[in-house]
Amino acid sequence: MEMLSIRADQFIESTLTERKNDVVTILVPENYYHSLGSEEQKNLRRKLPTLLRRYGKFLAGASRLNARAGKILYQKDQGKMIRINFRVESGMWNILGVLALSHGVSRCFLFNYMLALESVEVGDSIVETMNAGAPTFHRYYSFIWHLDLQSKRIFRKLEFTPNPIFPIFYGDYWIRTS
């Protein structure tokens, strides 16, 4: 009799930051790109770390951009897109990835969303409040994509530590269990 062994403890592990920076591609709307001056166009390649430092915590705790857990949103109805290739530290790219996955959007979508937040100066109003007394990034991020085949449900969840919001403030705390 033959036996098939399936292990549920499989995972992939590697270092978060590597020695060399990765070359990545981001798509931005052509009309946005051409609205920037030539210096701003060059600086667009260096904006990812700044945007993540400014909006990372906000995005981790904000309502999800995509309400459908089984779909990934990409930019649509943006017209022509321009490819921007640049080098970025793999840690920053991975943080962008986990935030994008938890929101159910692509990395490009989230990058453009952060650019939109920046253009309306949302960061000016939240950055001090979000980063007061705490590091810019959480220490741990855990993304869970849960598929419950029996009840035909799917959900995405981002957990992070430290979580500055004490559990008493969550609605579940007030629900009585009988």
Automatic annotation (TrEMBL):
Source species: Leptospira stimsonii
Protein name, as recorded: DUF1564 domain-containing protein
Top-level lineage group: Bacteria
